[in-house]
């Protein structure tokens, strides 16, 4: 049942602001959201914002960042503007808030003009009923919307600008969106409105970049640990097992009928693996950008309402997925960076209950990812726009991921150290395989070294043939551009021209539909020669590679 919101707390008779004390804020939290108390740095962030101060807030996935702007929206008359990278994300949040009786809206080109006009009319009123307004960065950049914001601000009604997923502004971050760059002008245009930057994934370089780019003034910087104590981290080695599909099937079956996400690099793997799991009695479906919108949303709906328990997906299944009881997040292929891994594995256990991150590591997968990243890298070097247009992520970021899988020692420590955190030896408490079963993991790593040596002698035959397919049939589309399921409107970040999108362009042009098979083989051989230029390939290996193209 919808509740009516608690009366606004802060305005005295003459519009003078009264301090909204801790007790009143806790009351708002309990009444509107049913949580007994604030968590982590939530209260500090809220108090800073309500005092008019800029704030940079780093909280782990599932930490409760949205409360940091939702409570201020309820504590003051006026509007909180929330800038969010995805329409789906905005839709989810607005729906959840409306269910709680909180007046929230989003503006996007996916709405009817009638609905948009209604929202604009409300914003023009002396006392708008909307408390939270969600928009994309593209809308902010339009002069029409900016002048509307200025008018609202001029009437003293713009209380806060919250920039969600703020790391998207930094070209050092893993999710760089060129459209976020446009937010740099906010501080000048709307001078005394506090800005709150929120992110779950910011290495120190990105944190500084976010603060500088948004031009935050003397911000309160709140950082929580990235540690997710309720997630158990584990790596399994594909090269040491007969059948990774069967292994995953056993894992899911022995976990019971739990909710899980399995991430794969390629769409075909999603389809194959999902079919295999289904045949073995696991309630699951594939999800990737190759499926039509209707099918994708029905998979999503079925998963959200527990009709199916396991989704086998590419990274298109990403931001904005709000199911809290995900017990297992499995990476069936190695992710491209520690940041991506942290973000994706962090979708497990958002209810804080014990959960699992399971990564299947394979040497073929590693080589394939290195090959893909090397193409993106070489394009970046060629680009004259390398300062602003492209992500600055590089293959070196991937090495951290390889070290996570191939190196010895605590997995949790490796994750946290990659984000610049100092980690005490006792932090993990045996909640990763390397700490819980050190001898077994050490044995696996020795066996893996042997397996790699054997594979190097025999050549990594499958890698390039798979890459040909991928470039040709867009099997990797989501890898290059994580959000290609979005609507493609001018307000949508989905047509962002980030580094991978540009690299996709080269790959496509390299292997356009007109490219004949011989040319493809030649191009791939040349790429392969470059790639393995320090490695000796005897005739037998070359023949083996050619043979694999023909299959
Ligand atoms: N003070 C609190 N007490 C208990 N639960 C809370 C509290 N604050 C937030 N939550 C709950 O925690 C969950 C995660 O919150 P939220 O979606 O805001 O996290 P987030 O930091 O934005 O996560 P992500 O980065 O994964 O999107 C939600 O179910 C929310 O209701």
UniProtKB/TrEMBL annotation:
List the Pfam families: DEAD, Helicase_C, RecQ_Zn_bind
CDD domains referenced in this protein's UniProt entry, alphabetically: DEXHc_RecQ, SF2_C_RecQ
Helicase C-terminal domain mapped to chain residues: 247-391
One GO cellular component term of this record is:
chromosome
Give the molecular function GO annotations.
Answer: 3'-5' DNA helicase activity; ATP binding; ATP hydrolysis activity; DNA binding; four-way junction helicase activity; metal ion binding
**Biological process terms in GO annotation:** double-strand break repair via homologous recombination
The cellular location(s) given in this protein's UniProt record come to: Nucleus
Query: What is its EC class?
Result: isomerase
Keyword Chloroplast recorded: no
Where does this chain mainly localize? nucleus
Documented EC number(s): 5.6.2.4
Domain Helicase ATP-binding per the UniProt entry, residue ranges: 46-220
| SMART domains given in the database record | DEXDc, HELICc
Q: Which family does it belong to?
A: Belongs to the helicase family. RecQ subfamily.
Q: What is this protein called?
A: ATP-dependent DNA helicase
